[in-house]
Amino acid sequence: MYKFLLCLRYLRTRYLAFVCIVSVMLGVATLIVVNSVMAGFSTKLKDRFRGLHTDVTIESPNMNGFSTPAAELKEKILNSRAGEFIEAMTETVEVFGMATFELYLQSGGSEPITMPVQVIGIDPEARAKLGGFAQYLTTPSRREKPSFELDPKALARWHHLHPPVDIPEHKPLIPGAPPLPDPPRDPVKPMGCFPGFAITHYRSTDPVTGAVNHKPLLLMGDSIRIVTASATKRLEPVYADFAIADSIQTEIPEYDRGFFWVKLEDLQTIRGMPGRCSHIHIRLKDYSKNKEAVEALREIFPDEREAIVQTWEDKNRTLLDAIDTERGILNLLLFMIVGVAGFSVLAVFSMIVREKTRDIGILKSLGASDRGVMSIFLGYGLLLGGLGAGLGIALGLTIVHYINPIEQFLSKNTGVGFDRRVYYFEELPTHVQPEMVALVTIGALLISVLFSVLPALRAAMLKPVRALRYE
Amino acid sequence: MIRAVNLTKSYHRHKHVVPVLQGIDLELQPGEFLSIVGASGSGKSTLLHVLGTLDKADSGMIFFGDERIDQLSSKERDRYRNEKFGFIFQFYHLLPELSAMENVMMPGLIGSSLFSWWQKRKQIKKRATELLERVGLGHRLHHKPREMSGGEMQRTAIARALIASPKVLFADEPTGNLDAEAADEIIRLLREINREERVTILMVTHNLELARLSDRVVKMSSGKFSPLSVNAPPLGYQPLNDIPHLCLPAPQV
Ligand SMILES: Nc1ncnc2c1ncn2[C@@H]1O[C@H](COP(=O)(O)OP(=O)(O)OP(=O)(O)O)[C@@H](O)[C@H]1O
Ligand SMILES: [Mg+2]
User: Fold this and answer.
1) A70 and A214 together in one domain
2) Which helix (H) or strand (E) holds A213?
């Protein structure tokens, strides 16, 4: 009983105790913030990867794609054992290409710009059913029912940029005959496309405020020419002009710079591979059964030279592993910091025990047992650790909650911040994992108890006579 | 009440053996108030600590009633100190973080678990208040030690020593840090408590004047009891009345 009283009193009167609390608090808060931000990044990355790569992909290693028509392949899959795992499925044509467009300079002239891209031909509605696509469209109204149709304004721009070929005025050949109807004005309907956000936009830094924002480089309705290779018997260069219908912003720089989405049929036509595809993307009913699903699919596509069956995790294995490793190492380092906080607990505790030597003697002369004295100090350690951890959790969660205003404030005033040229994320993503918070808390408590064991033992071993003579 | 037989104790310091107790025999009658006087370093405090189970003798025996207490387990010795013995020290030894009241209740707190404290807390609080009033500190219940004078602190310490209604009080120079008047008050208080509650008291003091107020005085020198004066016979200890100049003016208990 007296132990509680003394623990509380020692806490109230010992400013040294606050050193302990603060060091535990800072340790815990740092661990929570760093882990939440890292988890935020990796969750966001994984979310994008999974969305863009879809659960399982059957991919032809041949750039020309599968020779079997896509419809046949899909039917074969659905009728096989793998069919029961599948929630949705769509075929795509994916191929490397070059995008080129005219950049109008401020000086007045223009300059052609060419960049490598991955051209992806999709059926937008079917692809949307697999997830990880429609929500990245820049125009919110398109997300509901994605299509490559240009909206009226964009179409007008396209027509403006591609005026109809002027047909000379024609006169009726036979005098008196009724005039011929006007020829249709520009019968060519543009092929819509979704370039990556970073293709159609550039980043500008405000020289005064330092704020970074995206400015359009190309407008909707502008045209981009795609040059790629045919999938016919003899490889030939092929090209076509596309009209920008919208852009896709995944916030992953690689994809935003490199992906160029067009309509499946358009790409099939351009490449001369009607009805065929290079990839089949699958969304599983239950992703936890991905191993079984992949196995079942490999039964249909046993030859690795013909088709590669992979989950999104297999495809991104190296990067995902790197993220995990990085996180593990960082945690190890941070735990060392908490270990340092533990040593400050040890130091402060040794000081407190020394300061309280006489009290220990008094307590023993009043009949307190060695164990009782020890538990005062262990309890004290636990109390300090608990308070520190509690405050640390509160501080950490607050920082995580306000991480973006804090980051903006810091980068504005000190120039240290997270570089938006590296990440397209507008905001620092965070993800607080309750089990991580629990683990950190338990760790902090354990460390503070562990480091108070030694001083507590010393206090318990103290001979009462010695302690009493201490004046 | 307490009987010690041939207690010896020595400290070892770098091969030097420092004998502190060299064969002490002592018998305390129930309700007796015994004073020990002696030069500094003669082993008085050590004897008190050994008798009060705070320290261990190298050899010899200590009995409390019929029970031998020098060989008890540390748990049982803790219980003795908590329930049967009370200690009063020269430097008061109050816990600085606690109020007078809490200091007095401390032995009660130590002796009870959370549950039994809940049951007994009213009773213990009442007794602590009574004791503080008894020692004349009814108006200082919630003062911290640093807010009290030396005499007040020592009276708080006495109240604390009495809270568990102990059988024996060990007082090590309880007046050592007090002026003559406060010292006198403390001794008179001890004397009254000794009479009223029939508590056996073993007091170490340097002050012969104050020692005269006790029932019996023994002198220690280099770890042994020695005659009080050159004329006195070399007894281990002797009844107070045998020494004319130390005769107690007050009537015997
Ligand atoms: N831990 C120790 N190690 C070595 N010697 C010690 C120790 N504690 C006490 N002593 C020695 O034991 C002897 C007796 O000490 P003690 O405190 O009992 O004397 P005392 O009679 O109470 O003296 P005082 O009147 O000054 O309080 C002293 O000589 C002291 O130096
Ligand atoms: Mg002494």
Assistant:
1) yes
2) strand A212-216
Share of chain A above pLDDT 90, in %: 29
Assigned domain for A288 exists = yes
- CB-nearest to A1 from B87, B95, B112 is B112
The rounded distance, in Å, linking the Cα atoms of A256 and A415 is 26
- The domain tally of chain A equals 2
Q: Can you tell me whether residue B68 is helix, strand or coil? A: strand
Angle, vertex CA A309, rays to CA A304 and CA A310, nearest 5: 130
Within a 10 A sphere around the Cβ of A8, how many other Cβ atoms?
A: 14
* Structure ipTM: 0.85
Is-contact A307 A58, C-beta < 8 A? yes
Interchain CB distance below 8 Å, A465 and B102: no
How many Å apart are CA B63 and CA B75, to the nearest integer?
17
Pocket lining: B35 vs ligand 1, CB cutoff 6 Å? no
**Domain span holding position A192:** 61-162+188-306
Q: From the alpha carbon of B48, which atom of ligand 1 is closest?
A: 18
| CB of B45 closer than 6 angstroms to any ligand 1 atom | yes
Nearest Cα to B164, choosing from A6, A469, A465, A365?
A: A365
Q: Is residue B16 in contact with ligand 1, taking CB distance under 6 Å? A: no
Q: Chain B residues with CB inside 8 Å of A358's CB?
A: 93
Say yes or no: A203 and A226 in one domain. Answer: yes
Tell me the CA–centroid distance for residue B40 and ligand 2, in Å: 7
Are residues A462 and A373 part of one domain?
Answer: yes
Average pLDDT value for chain A = 85
- How far is residue A224's CA from residue A238's CA, in Å, rounded to a whole number? 14
pLDDT in tens, A218-267: 989 898 999 999 988 888 899 999 999 999 998 888 888 899 999 999 99
- The verdict on residue A175 lying in a domain is no
Q: Which of A10, A361, A366 is closest, CB to CB, to B97?
A: A10
For residues B214 and A182, what is the distance between their CA atoms, to the nearest angstrom? 137
Q: Are residues A101 and A134 in the same domain?
A: yes
Same domain, A133 and A246: yes
Final residue in a domain of this structure, among A252, A282, A306:
A306
Assess contact for A446 and A341: CB atoms under 8 A.
Answer: no
Out of A257, A280, A306, pick the residue that ends a domain.
A306
Cα B150 to chain centroid, rounded: 18
CB within 8 Å: B98 and A5: yes
Q: Do residues A42 and A66 both lie within one domain? A: no
- The H or E element spanning position B219 is strand B216-221
pLDDT digits (tens, 9 = 90+) for B172-199: 988 888 888 888 888 888 888 888 888 9
What structural domains does chain B harbor? 1-84+168-179+199-253 (3.40.50.300), 93-165 (no CATH)
Give CA–CA dist A395/B141, Å, rounded: 40
Residue B205 CB less than 6 A away from ligand 1? no
Assess if residue A176 is contained within a domain.
no
